[in-house]
Amino acid sequence: MKSIYDFELSELTELMENNGFKKYNATQIFQWLYRQKVSSFDEMTNISVKLRDWLKENYTCEGLETLKLQVSRDGTRKYLFRLHDGSSIESVLMHYDYGDTICVTSQVGCNMGCTFCASGLLKKQRDLTSGEMTLQVLEVQKDVEKMGVRVSHIVVMGTGEPFDNYDNVLAFCRTVNHDLGLGIGARHITISTCGLVNGIRRFADEHVQYNLAISLHAPNNEIRSRIMPVNRRYPIEQLMDALKYYCEKNNRRLSFEYILLKGVNDTDECVSQLIELTKPFDVYVNLIPYNTVDEHGYVSTDYKTAMELYNKLMKNNVRCTLRQKHGEDIDAACGQLRSKYERGKI
After folding, report:
1. Among this protein's residues, is 270 annotated catalytic?
2. Which pLDDT tens digit goes with each residue over 4-20?
3. By the 8 A CB rule, do 120 and 110 touch?
4. DSSP string covering 78-106, please?
5. In whole angstroms, how far apart are CA 283 and each of 16, 141, 249, 324?
6. Per-residue confidence at 340, pLDDT binned at 50, 70, 90?
7. In the chain, how many H helices and how many E strands?
8. pLDDT (tens digit, 9 = 90+) per residue, 264-283?
9. Per residue in 58-78, is it b (16+ CB within 10 Å) or e — as a string?
10. Measured between alpha carbons, how far is 162 from 310 in angstroms, rounded to an integer?
11. Which is it for the CA torsion 105, 111, 117, 119, positive or negative?
């Protein structure tokens, strides 16, 4: 049975009209779901019994089951959710000075095969629907609002490649951004891609205000192809061309995500190449300490070296930040908690 959360407001309006109900019923239902955060159609008390019964017969209003919640000393909250088909996914809530950010998963498993990432330990089973992504935000918000916390930012950087599930990810963004939905500002929503060139070009033509982040992680083809198989299909030259196209179409700043792997991508040569790569763009580089994944064997760059790298970028007019570690005392790496659960280790 299809979830009511899979409908955008425009689709819900069409559904009402096509089935003999009033156009305004769509707005009522939408507000019950996202403003009142109800968990059943029976709680929608300002719509008719006839409509409520019809909704119950044809759609589900179920949320996600929380299988496990890990809370770090730094306040990071990691959720393992069960979907309606029994699949499991992760979401993470992190606190920053500018607000509370949820990292949303877009696929069950991942086929991108990045050699440092726990997400790829379990291969892709299917795409998430837009409703399953929206429910991650809703479930986390319901959990933390009793503590006076509001989810203010969204990053689609969890398990999966968002541009490999393009239509559902964009539908999700429209719902959580909608004034009658969760009302999260477009500029507070970031979509991250490992470099699917066709998706970047398609996204450029949308002319939306959502932020675009690129999981770069290496400044040359030799290293990037070794740690990110996607680079063998879309080498850095093609990726940079697609990003130039995006920048021509949109007056938006890019973000380059750069995980620091000791002895792999943190050398002086890599820093110099990264500086050259950034020159054509209005870009912000996020230097990310690596959360160890036992199965992969990589080690994070030490703090002293990371600061030297940061200082060199800043001296060369590359705006960047050295991200603080989140959830170091829990299964912080993306996909790590789910992998342990699916393998029966927790």
Report:
1. no
2. 999 999 999 999 999 99
3. yes
4. EEEEE-TTS-EEEEEEEEETTEEEEEPP-
5. 44, 31, 15, 20
6. low
7. 12, 12
8. 999 999 999 999 999 999 99
9. ebbbebbeebbebebeeebbb
10. 28
11. positive
Contact status, residue 249 vs residue 208, Cβ threshold 8 Å:
no
Tell me how far apart the alpha carbons of residues 94 and 334 are, in angstroms, rounded to a whole number. 13
pLDDT at 307: 97
Catalytic option among 110, 117, 173, 334: 334
334 catalytic, yes or no?
yes
Number of domains in the chain: 2
Distance between CA atoms of 317 and 275, rounded to whole angstroms? 9
List helix spans (H) across the chain: 9-18, 23-34, 49-58, 130-144, 166-177, 197-204, 221-227, 230-233, 236-249, 268-278, 303-315, 336-342
* Cα separation, 81 vs 137, whole angstroms: 12
Exposure class string for 132-151: b at 16+ Cβ within 10 A, else e: bbbbbbbbbbebbeeeebeb
Give residue 20's domain range: 4-58
Q: If 0-12 CB within 10 Å is exposed, 13-18 middle and 19+ buried, where does residue 325 land?
A: middle
User: What's the CA gap between 157 and 111, in Å, rounded?
Assistant: 14
Question: Are 80 and 88 spatial neighbours (Cβ–Cβ below 8 Å)?
Answer: yes
The model's pLDDT over 37-79, given as tens digits with 9 standing for 90+, comes to 999 999 999 999 999 999 999 999 999 999 999 999 889 999 9
Residues 200 and 327 in one domain: yes
- The CATH number assigned to the domain holding 30 equals 1.10.150.530
The CATH number for 117's domain is: 3.20.20.70
Clarify whether residues 187 and 327 are in a common domain: yes
Percent of the chain with pLDDT over 70: 92
Q: What is the spatial distance between Cα 254 and Cα 148, in angstroms, rounded to a whole number?
A: 32
Cα end-to-end span (Å), the chain = 31
Marked catalytic residue, from 8, 61, 90, 247: 90
